[in-house]
Amino acid sequence: MDAYGLPNPYRFSIDKETGMIIAGDAGQVLREEMNVISKGANYGRNVKEGTTCFNAADNKNPLPDCPDRGCRGRSLVGRILPVMGMKITVLDLAIVG
Q: Which InterPro entries does this entry report, sorted A to Z (predicted)?
């Protein structure tokens, strides 16, 4: 599968019913991520961290705005699942480990 921009994926899971691929990603500094993996998606390494804009010059303070394209000119299209406050029963997902 051609997908890139995941800083540190450590676990993948495939939903048996839908075939959806979900990756747990340790993020860069401030946030952990769960990404729905799509063919050709750019998950924003060094541009986004979760839903915030990564600031390489001061990684403890996110930038107010993010570019919508990566260095190769491709859109940052990766879906990021919100973990805090997620209603697990609605999505029928389990978050483990």
A: 6-blade_b-propeller_TolB-like
Contact 69, 79 (CB under 8 A): no
pTM of the model: 0.65
Strand order in the sheet with 9-14: 9-14, 21-25, 33-37, 79-80
Q: Name residues whose C-beta falls within 8 Å of residue 12's C-beta, 6 or more positions apart in sequence.
A: 21, 22, 23, 24, 37
- How does pLDDT run across 9-45, given as a tens digit for each residue? 888 889 898 898 888 888 788 877 888 888 888 877 7
Q: Looking at residue 71, what DSSP letter applies?
A: T
Q: Give first-to-last CA distance, the chain, whole Å.
A: 25
Per the structure, how many domains does the chain have?
1
Domain that residue 48 falls in: 1-97
In the chain, the amino acid numbered 25 is D
- Which residues make beta-bridge pairs with 21? 14, 37
